[in-house]
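Extended Data, panel c. Modelled sequence:
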Amino acid sequence: MKIECTDPEIVDVPRRLRSLRQDKVDQLAESMAALGLQQPITVWSEAGDHLELVAGAHRLAAAIKLGWESIDCIWANGMPEIDRQLWEIDENLMRAELNPTELGEHITRRAELWGKRETQVSEVRPPEKSVGNKSPPTQKKGFAADTAKATGMSKRTINEHLARTKAIPADVRDMIKGTRLDTRVYLDSLKGMEPDDQRAKVKADLAAPKKPNRSFGIGGVEGEFQNLQWRWNQVSCEAQRRFKNWVSKQVPSVYDDGDGDA
């Protein structure tokens, strides 16, 4: 692999596993304008007539935004397609910008590619010499261990992300991705549910008002009132009815469910 310069405008960008974020492009453009490019993009060319991006979509977009006529790039020619895709995934996994849904999808895709690569290697690997009547056991690093070494994540974290992604259909993940629901705790809460129940829950939770944030200084009675309002909107009509009945029994002179003046 070698480092050269190329015109950012001639680099083709295939479909990416990670969507482009304009706010990230803007931040990178500001940084690159002040400090320059800290890490080259990675490209490859099969026929020499065009370049295709392997890794660095946000850096490339930032360079185009700045109007740069050239950008440093690492040529990955001669690298198998699976390894090029793994390069993109591993570079994304080592960054902090991925949300939990994206992390799970990246790790799941990496598992698919890693399995294909291992199958290809095993098909061309010469047979092991036998010892007596038995062949020696194959010593092979597992996926989680290989990914942990490549990304710095723990094997436990990797397996947890795999389990979440496997348990939640792609269309449900698309509904959650990038929203306030995109947390590990929320994704775990969906794992034991049927897909239709997952879809219904996510739609309802996305439609519900956002929980008041006390970090903005809303405290005292006003903060308590807003939290009560938020909680009221989260529960079912039956729960609201039962709560009304309970409140009317506690303070009948203040609360009135009818058409009175109270």
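The first helix runs from residue 22 to 35. This feature is highlighted in the accompanying rendering.
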